[in-house]
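In the laboratory, one determines a bound structure by crystallizing the protein with its ligand and collecting diffraction data. In a computational setting the workflow is compressed into a single prediction: the sequence and the ligand go in, and a structural description comes out. We illustrate the idea with zinc ion.
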Amino acid sequence: MNQTFNRGCLESIIGTMFSGKSKALIERGYRASEFGGVSVYYFKPKLDTRDVEITSRNGEKAQAVLLERGMDIMEYTQNIPHPSMIIIDEAQFFDESLLYAVQLLRLKGHNIIVAGLDKDFRGQPFGIMPAIMALSDTQIRKIYPVCSIEGCVEDGSLPQRLRNGEPDSALSPTVVIEGSSDDIAYRPVCQLHHTVPDLAEYIENRLETVIPE
Ligand SMILES: [Zn+2]
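The predicted complex, in structure-token form:
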């Protein structure tokens, strides 16, 4: 493939839980198919086993294909019309291969919207999302709900993880799906209300793994 013109567009939508991110994705898909006559395909990581649909808070749904690895998207998009719209949700859970897959799809002329969390429950960069944002063409949209602490009016830009109702330790694993173990829950909070026990210890541990050149 030598084509470097007429390439598609890659954009990211960053948002915490309850931000209306799924609604924004469904609306974009609807607009593209209803008004643009473009075929729209939705994908999610298989890890996120909650359901095979992208569901907004007010109940709108889009059927998604669940992918094991990022690169699997190439197989599912092999015979789709050009250009199509490809929408990928919860992309923070995908492996690095998605970074290359979306670039190939963009070179083929498809328009891609990648949505996910840019920060994990510790407030650290989450998986491939920072790289997806770097690859995005013009649009990087960040949408947040209000902080879930009562009386606070700031943006809930960070995912607070609660384990049995208490802020979870930074030393816990990065990926723990809500409802999968103990009593795990997530809620969006602002910088001020984001509480992560052992965060300094976690960052010190990470610092020690950096090998100076
Ligand atoms: Zn707050």
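The chain has a mean pLDDT of 91. Keep in mind that any predicted model is a hypothesis to be tested, not a measurement.
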